[in-house]
Specification:
Arp2/3 complex 21 kDa subunit ARPC3; two-stranded antiparallel ribbon; 8 helices; transport; BioY; 70% helix; 2% strand; mainly alpha
């Protein structure tokens, strides 16, 4: 897969946006999963760049974190984060952004695109909850109570905001961005 200079720059910019918004983080006393703007950033990335470039952007973000650059929530980094209690949430992000980007590439239907946002979030919840349960020894039920239930409403609001931002930006710069060239 050969990327143009423009595509490489877009991927880098959006990887940086995800890294920056991941730092808007509020630790919660009842769980090791912080409240961040990462989901918002990843969803917007998928809606603007489409499946190919958004997936590359998120993989760049994860790679930067893996090599120790503190791009993950609360300025953390290192491969250990991916194998810690919250690593499953990070590992679900490439699939989330791919699904959102694919819906954006293939459809202009608000319903389909919003359903892709919800499906992507559910994937992140599943991968994150399963890994949290595995690492901490909690049951799936306990893990859902700690890691999903407190975030559902806020994450749904983030998806609405992501749709508004992503759709607006896409419409305004669609002639400049090349997100449909997959």
């Amino acid at each position: 897969m050969k990327l143009s200079t423009k595509e490489l720059i877009l991927c880098s910019i959006f990887a940086a946006i995800v890294a920056i918004l991941s730092q808007i983080s509020i630790p919660l006393p009842f769980t090791t999963v912080p409240l961040t703007m990462q989901i918002l950033a990843v969803a917007v990335t998928g809606l603007i760049l489409g499946s190919k470039l958004s997936t590359i952007s998120v993989l760049i973000y994860l790679l930067l974190g893996c090599i120790g650059i503190p791009v993950f929530a609360q300025f953390s980094g290192g491969v250990g984060i991916l194998f810690g209690p919250t690593g499953g949430y990070l590992l679900g992000l490439p699939l989330m952004v791919y699904i959102i980007g694919l819906a954006k590439d293939k459809s202009s239907s608000t319903i389909i695109i919003f359903l892709s946002l919800i499906a992507g979030l559910i994937i992140v919840y599943i991968t994150g909850t399963l890994m949290f349960a595995l690492i901490t020894g909690n049951t799936i039920h306990q893990s859902i109570l700690y890691c999903v239930a407190p975030f559902v409403l806020v994450d749904f609001i983030k998806l609405i905001l992501a749709y508004i931002v992503g759709s607006t930006v896409s419409k305004r710069v669609s002639s400049t961005l090349i997100y449909n060239e997959n």
